[in-house]
Write a sequence for this structure.
């Protein structure tokens, strides 16, 4: 069964600190992996997209890594800001399919 | 604003009533997707259109749900005889169909449905 699991479920950090969110997937065949940021009551917004040949990709203070062998990805947030408070969703697209498989998300709260 | 738009943003209805939501995709996108998201969960795929053709439907899409995209532009999602379990955020996304590339989906702000 194609699944995407994320950890931790929720996380609280202080402003300025770094954090890393984890994503494990069992999706085959793998096409690409995306990280989305979803503010409360809003639709998800794409942060990064990676194919199996890409190990790391950055978008400002966000850096995603992908290990296609172990089927793991991480999203590292550097120097967190209050506006980083949101849910971060890991999404995997299976090859040949148009639908995406979503994780349940990690809810990040950045406190001053 | 050239992003995906959804209307209404919020809908409160009584159990048993019918509701209809609208999604306007990014104008040059020929693919349109509907998702449902409950609190604390990621979105779940409901259905997808390429132009006006509905190419795939999830088993989550019971016979009370119907989606249309009559002219290949905007889409509507109708829920008949709503149940309290239908309460969720309904998200629409659109993308281009590309032979290569990521086919990135751009999401709208969602319609939050509350069934009393």
């Amino acid at each position: 069964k194609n699944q995407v699991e994320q950890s931790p479920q929720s996380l609280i950090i202080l402003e300025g600190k770094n954090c890393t969110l984890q994503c494990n997937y069992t999706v085959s065949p793998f096409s690409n992996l995306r990280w989305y940021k979803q503010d409360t009551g809003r639709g998800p917004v794409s942060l990064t997209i990676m194919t199996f040949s890409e190990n790391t990709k950055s978008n400002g203070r966000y850096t995603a890594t992908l290990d296609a062998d172990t089927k793991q990805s991480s999203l590292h947030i550097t120097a967190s800001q209050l506006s980083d408070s949101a849910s971060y969703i890991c999404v995997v697209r299976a090859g040949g399919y148009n639908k995406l498989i979503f994780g349940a998300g990690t809810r990040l709260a950045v406190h001053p | 604003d050239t992003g995906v738009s959804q209307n209404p943003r919020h809908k409160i209805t009584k159990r048993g009533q019918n509701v209809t939501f609208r999604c306007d995709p990014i104008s040059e996108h020929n693919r349109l997707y509907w998702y449902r998201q409950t609190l604390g969960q990621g979105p779940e795929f409901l259905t997808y259109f390429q132009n006006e053709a509905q190419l795939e439907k999830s088993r989550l899409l019971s016979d009370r749900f119907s989606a249309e995209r009559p002219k290949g532009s905007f889409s509507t999602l109708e829920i008949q005889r709503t149940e309290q379990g239908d309460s969720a955020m309904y998200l629409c996304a659109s993308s281009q169909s590309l032979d290569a590339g990521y086919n990135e989906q751009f999401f709208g702000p969602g319609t939050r449905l509350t069934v009393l």
In short: Chain A has no helices and eleven strands.
